[in-house]
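Lay summary. Proteins are chains of building blocks that fold into shapes, and those shapes determine what they do. In this project we predict the shape from the chain. Here is one chain we studied, written as its sequence of building blocks.
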Amino acid sequence: MMTTFRNSANCFFGDSSAELPLDVIWIDLLNPTAEEISFVESRTRVRIPSIDSLSEIESSSRLAVHHDILYLSIPAVAAGDTVDAYLTPTGFILMKSILVTVRFATLSTFDAVTEKVKQDETIRSAPAVFTALLEAMVDRGADVLERLGAELTTVSKSVFRGDPSQPKHIMRSNAALRRALTSVGTTGDRLALARDALLAVGRVAPFVLNLRKEWIIPEFGARLDAVAKDILSLNDYEVHLSNKVQFLLDAILGFISIQQNDLFKVLTIVSVVGIPPTVVAGIYGMNFKYIPELNWTYGYTFGLAMIALSALIPLAWFKWRGWF
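And here is the predicted shape, written in a compact code that computers can read:
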């Protein structure tokens, strides 16, 4: 689908049989067809990159200049509010008068800027739209990091701040630890996606500024500089969250290890406690003719008492040692 925006804030859907108005400032291509790509290339005289070209990770492919035309590529996060979030390549072709964007997924940042272009009279040029898109990506990234930070805080409280006097509030069960581990792992994956997207935006803004194009007026230059500085602060916060994810993973795995050790401790105690009664029962179960207690009135009671004591004495010893 191809959508064009004019500096009069009117938008329309273009087709291969129409001509581009002179006041077009933004052409947005969403999953473009071959006809739409051919139409835009013939009208703007630019090369529309393919999804494979936009997916390349080297800087020379993501940041390039050809004949005063800027070819930029940024991985954006699609479906960022769900557990199925993924990176999708997004291309920017920036010229003095027209911005062409190429994307292959619906992005909330583009939807927000679309509404802003329709309502904000200050966004009436290609550099203005480009700047607004980068600012929207930074704002979106900040919101995502804040939400992920809140999720990590919730998991951290559930893991570390249980009430020892109320075991039901302590997070030690296998199911609870498994849920916490899954939650932290999912958060770590989404955090990695946000990091990749923000790093790409952080490279684009300084690159455009360093070119010192005369059509990047001081206002947009200052806003792009602010974008670059915001990215630096968000990167610091992202590093903090990444360290917290690693800490929580280590802590949860530590609790799982402790729980397993407690289980083995119980099994060891049970096996040790069961040995003395087995020995006593074995002695009195031997088929010898002369056993002193056979003719004793209280011999059976004595045997049961010996078995019970041989089990209770090791339990008392383990309890005194604080082993359980």
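What the prediction tells us: The longest strand covers residues 69-78.
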